[in-house]
Amino acid sequence: MSQDARTNAKPALRIIPREQHVISRKNISKAALRVLYRLNEAGFQAYLVGGAVRDLLLGGHPKDFDVATNATPDEVKKLFRNSRLIGRRFRLAHVVYGPEIIEVATFRGTGEEEGEGDRHIVDGRIVRDNVWGTVEEDALRRDFRVNALYYDISDFSVRDYVGGMQDVEGRVLHLIGDPATRYREDPVRMLRAVRLAAKLNFRIDAKAAAPFDELGPLLAEAAPARLFDESLKLFLAGHGLKSFHMLEQTGLLKFMFPATARALKRGDHALRALVEQGLANTDARVAEGKSVTPAFLFAVLLWGEVRDLAHTWITKGLEPNAAWERAAVHVIGEQCQRVAIPRRFTLTMEEIWALQPRFEQVQRKRVFRLMAHPRFRAAFDFLVLRAAESPAVKELGDWWAHAQQLPHETLAAALAGTSSGPSTESAAPTKPRKRRRRKPSGKSGNKSDQA
Ligand code: ATP
Ligand code: MG
Questions:
Q1: What is the number of the ligand closest to the CA of 105?
Q2: Which of 48, 147, 183, 189 has most ligand 1 atoms within 8 Å of CB, for mutation?
């Protein structure tokens, strides 16, 4: 942080006593309380800090509780048998209670003074080795004011060094210090701004949003693995649609998902519908406590480019299976330079895409083979989401939805007579992409022309 940033955010401590805030020990995890009390009884300062304090003030239920203290990691280790030290550059203690882990961090200094801690660039971030500090310094090196509130276990007050309480009330995100400087130190803070604004329903202060255009390209230097974690928190934490809209509005989407941003910019309305519906469904599943898979969502985000590339290559004469595979490899390759999607997810994405053209092939054997495919469900859900692409795709989705409802024998019988699907009036599949009708006609396209 620059000198300028520090003076801008000169700490003026405000202590909010217990009776003037809503944080109750009832809502703090037992494990976190034990850590706080034990540290305090041993004579150390001990605060709950960060997202947990912010979320508790907003009436939310934090999923993790972080503790800040003036005890060094070694002192923490001595106090808690159930702890282990982690981190190389900056050591932290994890205190473990069954499934719960409480992260205990020693107050970090700003490392402004000459020779204090070595500066390193790690994953596009400027970091310094263990430089311990005071609680005031620890507050100043945090990102947003609302993330720099400290709940004091010794008197249950909240300590506010940077005006975070006011921001909680005003539902706004201000960076601590000079925004451009803070983003240069760590570009991922731009994404954190968007994510927290989406999650909390806050606005991003104009000064905090102003550098996005100019500094967004710095995200290229952020570690792809970190961007993957960040993208899960953006899209799979229950506020994905909002995150997506905000990433688009702020112009940051193109630095994370260039292919998606390009396709949307070309006016790919079908892709937009797919992405928005996919995110809305994911948000609904999260709200119901159901599981969500990153693979499906990444498949959604990148579909526009994969489909267009595959079609281009097919037009140029490449064999369709090869064209789809090459398109998938190409798009995933580009994406993973930004956001490191683990292999287990990219494999599923490739399967979901590769199965899409197979929905057009509705001969009896192929229908049953596709239905038995381990990725059928995901691929079918994907097909349904693609309905906005064309009436033909919509019809195809309806056909498969209907086909799955039919008892096996009924479907088999219906498929037996024809080569193209149930003889009911239900939407029959349109012509498979590969086999072109000789004479295009205005007919309803009921029977496709496979022989
Ligand atoms: P979430 O609800 O996602 O957990 P959070 O604010 O708790 O939000 P964490 O990633 O858990 O986010 O970080 C915990 C705290 O550490 C933050 O509240 C903030 O004070 C500090 N912090 C995290 N990331 C940064 C960063 N990139 N720069 C500065 N401070 C950070
Ligand atoms: Mg957190």
A1: 1
A2: 147
Predicted local confidence at residue 41, as pLDDT: 98
Residue 64 known to be catalytic: yes
pLDDT in tens, 182-203: 999 999 999 999 999 999 999 9
Domains of the chain, with CATH numbers? Answer: 3-177 (3.30.460.10), 187-451 (1.10.3090.10)
308 CB within 6 A, ligand 1 = no
3-state secondary structure the chain: CCHHHHHHCCCCCEEECHHHCCCCHHHCCHHHHHHHHHHHHCCCCEEEECHHHHHHHCCCCCCCCEEEECCCHHHHHHHCCCEEEECCCCCEEEEEECCEEEEEEECECCCCCCCCCCEEEECCEEEECCCECCHHHHHHCCCEHHHCEEEECCCCCEEECCCHHHHHHHCEECECCCHHHHHHHCCHHHHHHHHHHHHHCCEECHHHHCCHHHHHHHHHHCCHHHHHHHHHHHHCCCCHHHHHHHHHHHCCHHHHCHHHHHHHHCCCHHHHHHHHHHHHHHHHHHHCCCCCCHHHHHHHHHHHHHHHHHHHHHHCCCCHHHHHHHHHHHHHHHHHHHCCCCHHHHHHHHHHHHHCHHHHCCCHHHHHHHHCCCCHHHHHHHHHHHHHHCHHHHHHHHHHHHHHHCCHHHHHHHHHHCCCCCCCCCCCCCCCCCCCCCCCCCCCCCCCCCC
User: What's the CA-to-centroid distance between 53 and ligand 2, angstroms?
Assistant: 10
**Portion of the chain with pLDDT greater than 90, in percent:** 79
pLDDT at 52 over 90: yes
